[in-house]
Amino acid sequence: MTSFRQLVFSGVQPTGNLHLGNYLGAITKFVALQDSHDCIYCVVDLHAITVPQDPAQLRQSIREVTAAFLACGIDPKKHIVFNQSQVPEHAELAWVFNCVARLGWLNRMTQFKEKAGKDRENASVGLYAYPALMAADILVYRATHVPVGEDQKQHLELARDIAQKFNNDFAASIASEGFGEAFFPQPEPLIQGPATRVMSLRDGTKKMSKSDPSDYSRINLSDDADAIAQKVRKAKTDAEPLPSEEAGLKDRPEADNLVGIFAALSDQSKADVLRDFGGGQFSAFKSALVDLSVTKLGPIGAEMKRLVHDHAYIDSVLADGSERARLQACETMKAVKSILGFVQH
Ligand code: TYM
Fold it and tell me: Cα(156)–Cα(146) distance, rounded to whole angstroms?
């Protein structure tokens, strides 16, 4: 078996407000992995344009996501923070993967079906090919670990299938070019903990999402203490007291969601939370959740607001990160081109 250097890669789209789901499902994991791994964190602006974007708003959102990464504690000196469009090798490898992936594989992607909706004929080709670009993001660095929320699981499986098919289809060339048995690793999704799928505060059966028309459905990372408190207080619940055991959360999606959020924010398990709050009414639990959310998220929002205005600093972080990312990406593309049989000068 070929062994690969352990490397973490993940990406976040600059499309609208970052919310508690992005934070608990992904960004807190990004922060934690910094101590044990080399990490590359990307603002995926090429993915953003698979649906229409206003250029001025997109520019602002790219800076906002970067500011959020930094405000949450990602260190852009020790690790790499950059925006995808500045490393053209992502798009280049995505083309190669468009030729490796099968139509049948992409036809199964549930996120395309959800995002394209009923008007599929009118969806962009980019939206359809989105998962091949995502595979390229990861594999252009030959990354081995990918922290994401539950909703990205199917895309990660596709990235693994693409890596494997490339390795199989070009096995002889990979070996003769001196890369051993496999050129690409099988990237492993890291989807763990009590908040891998944070649900809407208005409807516990729907994912918390940037595109929900109700702002009360989500806590934005930029929300101030008052907004956070109001949204938690108004969050939908049911009429029963909280259960004392995790099994009692079954078929109670709103209770399950709030307990999961509390657990993730306080670094405990759901069972720990229920040990403290089980048997009690939602009002007391919600007060504690307001305090916890404001304590954890308040300083992040304030730091994000401060940083996002400092264009010179944010843009210098992205420029430095892009340059360092590009060195690695170029090396991979050079190898991919010789494996494919392209003549290089
Ligand atoms: P995006 O921008 O939609 O979301 C960024 C990250 O947040 C996670 N997430 C959630 N986690 C828990 N509960 C939720 N309600 C919730 N909503 C979002 C997502 O799972 C994701 O980890 N396709 C990706 C971006 C991407 C990428 C990549 C990720 C592009 N290339 C390569 C990893 C590796 C996306 O649209 O994420």
Answer: 8
- For a ligand 1 pocket test, name from 151, 196, 258 the mutation site with the most ligand atoms within 8 angstroms of its C-beta: 151
Pair (142, 278) in one structural domain: no
Which of 10, 19, 22, 83 to mutate to test ligand 1, by most ligand atoms within 8 A of the CB atom? Answer: 22
13 Cβ inside 6 Å of ligand 1: yes
Question: Do 175 and 183 meet the contact criterion of CB atoms below 8 Å apart?
Answer: no
Mean predicted confidence (pLDDT) in 139-166: 98
Tokens 């004392």, located at residue = 244
Cα separation of 74 and 66, whole Å? 10
User: In Å, how far from its chain's centre is CA 57?
Assistant: 20
Interval 251-272 mean pLDDT: 97
**Structural domain for 13, as ranges:** 7-196+310-340
In short, whether 92's Cβ falls inside 6 Å of ligand 1 is no
Q: Could you give the residue numbers annotated as active site?
A: 115, 207, 210
> 90-102, pLDDT tens digit by residue?
999 999 999 999 9
Residue 98 placed within a domain: yes
What CA–CA distance (Å, rounded) separates 105 from 132? 10
Same domain (yes/no): 139, 178: yes
* Cβ-proximal residues to 161 (8 Å cutoff; 6+ apart), any chain: 101, 105
Query: With bands split at pLDDT 50, 70 and 90, how would you rate the model's confidence at 1?
Result: confident
Residue at 206 is within a domain: no
Q: Which residues of 69-99 are buried (b: 16+ CB within 10 A; e: fewer)?
A: bbbbebebeebbbbbbbbbebbebbbebbbe
